[in-house]
Write a structure and sequence with these properties.
Helix content: 40-55%
Distance between the termini: 77 Å
Number of strands: 9
Order of helices and strands: HHHHHEEEHHHEEEEEEH
Structural class: alpha+beta
Number of domains: 2
Radius of gyration: 25 Å
Number of helices: 9
Strand content: 15-25%
Length: about 300
């Protein structure tokens, strides 16, 4: 028996499915990837699928081969990324693949005359598991997308002006942020120091993790506009947050609207505020004017 493989059709089907598959994975895992990287990763997956159809690539159909192919495709699309993001991408990829496989099987059972494509990187055992995981996978993806959509709908924009240079960052209104400058009682917006690395002087960047010692080493003009603000976080001992007075601080409500200047300090955090960088600043309620005020 001679097996005839239409290479061009096999490549095209794999490419289209892998492209959609990777797009769903990126959305569910909260990862960002350029169009060219996604396209290249989908092409890699399609090439591996074509290779697996020939005797020389039969090992790609085995569980170790399928695992290697999956890791290669994900790395091509999303690497480098944090370990937590890599795990989210892997689980999103597997669950969405199981959902696709289960859906295809259900359609073929209903309409046996239709020959639908099955993602080649899903091994035979996973296809059967896809029948059970299909519903769970779809629900997981739906809940993940809905959660991220709801979060993004509440994201403000924060614009910080420093010595003629401005930076705009996504910011979340944090009702638990009650930080105030002990001297002026001005509210403090917590911002990732890494997000301001290009506009902050190197001396300020170095002083973020040094406390009083770092404050004493700042040049005269920056020493006058910086101060240490005591803070307390869940699971952490009390500490001191280096904060500075920007040349201008303004906010924009979710969905756009007018920018409004607000009085406040910028506190610099050495840690990332969200694992997928959905927001990079935390605003206290005092720095988030109401929607009516924003329109006015």
């Amino acid at each position: 028996m001679v097996l005839v493989v239409s290479v061009d059709l096999l490549f095209l089907l794999n490419f289209l499915v892998d492209l959609v598959w990777l797009a769903v994975t990126a959305r569910a895992a909260g990862l960002k990837a350029g169009r060219w990287r996604m396209t290249g990763a989908a092409m890699l997956g399609a090439l591996l699928a074509v290779w697996a159809a020939f005797p020389g690539g039969r090992w790609l159909r085995s569980p170790p081969g399928a695992a290697l192919g999956t890791c290669l495709v994900l790395a091509a699309a999303f690497a480098p990324c944090a370990v937590r993001q890599a795990w989210r991408a892997l689980w999103s990829f597997l669950l969405s693949g199981a959902a696709i496989a289960g859906t295809v099987i259900l359609i073929q059972l209903r309409l046996p005359g239709i020959g639908l494509y099955m993602p080649s990187t899903v091994a035979g055992g996973l296809v059967l598991a896809g029948l059970a995981l299909g519903g769970a996978g779809v629900r997981y993806l739906w809940e993940s997308l809905r959660e991220r959509s709801q979060l993004k709908q509440g994201i403000w924009s924060l614009r910080i002006l420093i010595e003629g240079q401005s930076v705009s960052l996504p910011a979340l209104v944090d009702t638990g942020n009650h930080l105030r400058d002990p001297l002026t009682s001005m509210p403090v917006a917590v911002v990732e120091a890494a997000a301001l690395g290009q506009v902050l002087p190197p001396a300020v960047t170095r002083a973020v993790a040094m406390g009083w010692e770092g404050l004493e080493r700042l040049p005269g003009d920056w020493a006058a506009r910086c101060r240490l603000v005591p803070f307390r976080a869940v699971g952490r001992p009390e500490g001191m947050l280096l904060a500075f007075l920007p040349d201008d601080l303004s906010v924009q409500p979710p969905g756009g609207g007018q920018w409004q200047t607000v009085p406040g300090l910028v506190g610099l955090s050495t840690a990332s505020l969200h694992p997928e960088a959905v927001y990079r600043a935390l605003l206290p309620l005092q720095l988030a004017p109401s929607e009516k005020e924003s329109r006015e």
